[in-house]
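Exercise 3.2. Students should predict the tertiary structure of the chain below and write it as structure tokens, then compare their answer with the key that follows.

Predict this chain's 3D structure.
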Amino acid sequence: MSVSQTHRTIDTIWRMESPKLIAGLTRMVRDVGLAEDLAQDALVIALARWPDTGIPDKPGAWLMTTAKRRAIDLLRRNKLRDQKYVEIAREIQLYTEDEVDHALDGEIEDDLLRLIFMTCHPVLSQDARVALTLRLLCGLTTDEIARSFLIAESTVAQRIVRAKRTLNTEKVPFEVPVGQELAERLSAVLEVIYLMFNEGYSATSGQNWTRPLLCQEALRLGRVLAAIAPGEPEAHGLAALMEIQSSRLKTRINAQGEPILLMDQNRALWDQLLIRRGLAALDRAQRLGRTLGPYAIQASIAACHAVAHTPSDTDWIRIAALYEALLRQTPSPIVELNRAVAIGMAFGPAYGLQLVDELNTEPSLQGYHLLPSVRGDLLQKLGRFEEAGAEFERAAGMTRNAREQALLLRRAAECKREGGRT
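Answer key:
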């Protein structure tokens, strides 16, 4: 394996393992900023050593052991002598790599939930919580986060630095709250898990269209939350949404890792167990007898696709109505864009295009690649191939995901060929 191939593999390992590393280290040092620094130190050491020594059989355990040793060195270097750090150092020295590897599947996974509640503490603003979560739990760079929210990279970096400093200054506990405090922070935690899942379902950047392990971890955490907050419809709604969406993960890419759009997926390969679990979770949300929230509404939309055996069986009129309900609860240009797609499918592409064109001047969508992508799709269906190709090319220039960019460029080329025949 070449050095560049090794570095790409290490990058993949880092994206998978870094949330667990940071969570486990936070439990030990009680400082999320220091925990991230220690994890990054372990990554730097891996980048230096693994091209020569090869990637170890248990890379996550290797990284955790290395990070813990760095923690001991730091504590000794800074001459921190209080009892807490002495106990931490003594505990760390007893770990072997096999023991750490076992812990990654046990206690450290619970630490991820604690880390989410810590980063969702009300001492942080919503913007800070989102930025910190995407950085620590999804492994996104500040540049990727900035592009996702159409803001300056420096703004994101400042939010993350201030958030970590605030958590440390305020001595926010590393724990899952109970009772009323749990209820008060639940919505923020649900949002964070939702963000985790979405990043896994459609990766913001990189060489892969999806990050299934991130989806799997978000789904696991969502199930845990639904269990500890059984009376909260939105906890069940989010679990339902992730179960149903996860059922399609294996059909979203082909053997070469190239994206397969929803209408082209082999529905016979959708995971029926996950669909049944999702429909059951949605039923639990509905039986609580309260107005469905945004996650449960989105789960209802996903359910419309899940129960349709073929694309033509899809109840697009119901989906359009559900998007209308979602828009009333959470007004957003992105929800409006999705509603336009549904209306285009239900009543014809001309109606959808009219709604999309009304969003062309929306400032928050000017750098959003799905706006020209959706417009290109509608134009293609209307036979306006030259315009459609231009829109797909524009969308390709906006996305940071290599697989998505290749898909959009292929669609642009198809439109040019179709246009040449007319």
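Discussion points: The longest strand covers residues 205-206. The chain has a mean pLDDT of 87.
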